[in-house]
Amino acid sequence: MHSDHLRLDGVSRSYGERRVLSDVGFSVGRGQRVGLIGENGAGKSTLLRIIAGVEAPDHGVITRPLRTGILWQEVPFRPSDTVEDVFEDALAEVRAIERELDDAASALAHDPESPAAPERYAAALAAAERADIWGADARRDVLRDGLGVSALQLDRRLDEVSGGQRSRVALAALLLRRPDALLLDEPTNHLDDSAAEFLERQLRDWAGPVLFASHDRAFLDAVATGLVDLDAARAPHADSHASTASVTVFGGRFSEYLEHKASERDRWERQYADEQEELGRLRHAVAVTTRSVAHGRGPRDNDKFIHGFKGARNDQAIARRVHNAEGRLSVLEREQVRKPPAPLAFAGIPRGSQALGDESGLLVQAAGLAVAGRLAPLDLRVEPQTRLLVTGANGAGKSTLLALLAGRIGAGDGVLQRRRGLRVGLLEQDVRFPDAALPARAVYESVLGERRAEQVPLSGLGLIAPRDENRPVGALSVGQQRRLALALVIAKPPHLFLLDEPTNHLSLGLATDLEEALGTYPGAVVIASHDRWLRLRWTAAELHLHPVTDAALAPVAG
Predict the structure, then answer these.
(1) Residue extents of the structural domains in the chain
(2) Which residues, in sequence order, are CB contacts of 65 under 8 Å at separation 6+?
């Protein structure tokens, strides 16, 4: 069904025995911008695919505008496609209107007496004006510049640019298409500050409904006019064995919702504790108290009659008390709230990293380290307890620097020295597992080895829900796959831990837990990030990179 708004009624979706969405319903009107939040695997991407019409729900009705556009976490183009191919695909409707206007003008010029020719030309001209075909290329260039991809030549192949650049090209193309409704899946994952602020302005001015899934708290606060929380932990009366998304709609800012959610969790925990205390009292009353007789002695010969009379009345009172207690117990056992589940949170980095012998000295030292066209020359020292945040605009070389430190690529220029025996772990932005059919637990055991996996079980890290450990990694969400990649690194902590945009695709709660845990990590930590919230809270050293075409590297701030 088509409309000028988005509306969902009773939408449910299961994969085999695993229920992802259950009876989801909400609406997004014109000019509204609703943030879709929830834990990794709660069904956010699934819901966006269903709304877009790419995937069908098991049950439910969806109403959406005819021209509804969606931004995928993974860019849906071939590696051999060029940047221009992506933009021309977005402008396909505009180009068709251009061709029709040209054809209509030609028909009118060749046969001006035809009664149909003027009408055709007038209709084509009106369509061209509505689509603003004359400003299409200018809009494309504004979007390219605003999202930080104007330096990419239009003939560049997609497999020749970074994953972040591909995502920004796809976002620019979607905005260029100007659909009536927007569906965005983690739109700020690869945006620097200026690009994120540019996108915020674009969305605040968007006329149609906007629904976006995001873990970016600053972006949610700046853009969302309301929130929809897909969090299975928010269903107090739900079957504890069901993985069911319970929708909570909140018409306020994200920072306000965090306070609301914390208060609600406190109420839930207090209600659960009170009900468990009452259940214990009732069970004791039914089993013991209500069946006890107040008088523990037998009757004397001269009052057997009165004792029998009072005993009968006492038995009746006890029966009523038992009956009432049993009734209250039955109702409470049936209607009690379920136990608030422990949030799926980062359990802390396990200790036991192999020592290098001397806890002092340098792990890595670089002088004049550079890669032509990707990283400007820099000097760097990494000590055993270094905490370093690497920042800079897209294309400044943050991922390149981490790849150099990890030994994934060779240094083009300069000197890079690593300490003997140094073990380096890298959490990359784009996670890929060679065998997508392997269960998450099997991947974990194959990478770590059976002994280490037994010493540090996957279930103990709090990163993958027990119900998901035996699912194929290819069936996990992007966020869940990144959680697994994180588990593979921290289960055997390296001496130098490198994290490339660590909060991308991670839930807000887990991202906060990870940042706090890194403060006590038993080795050195180097983080490359655009995350505005993380950067505002960072108190250790920072290294700001400038693009290769800019001035030399800015100094390190301690």
Answers:
(1) 80-178, 261-335, 364-433+479-545
(2) 2, 3, 4, 5, 6, 179, 180, 181, 208, 209
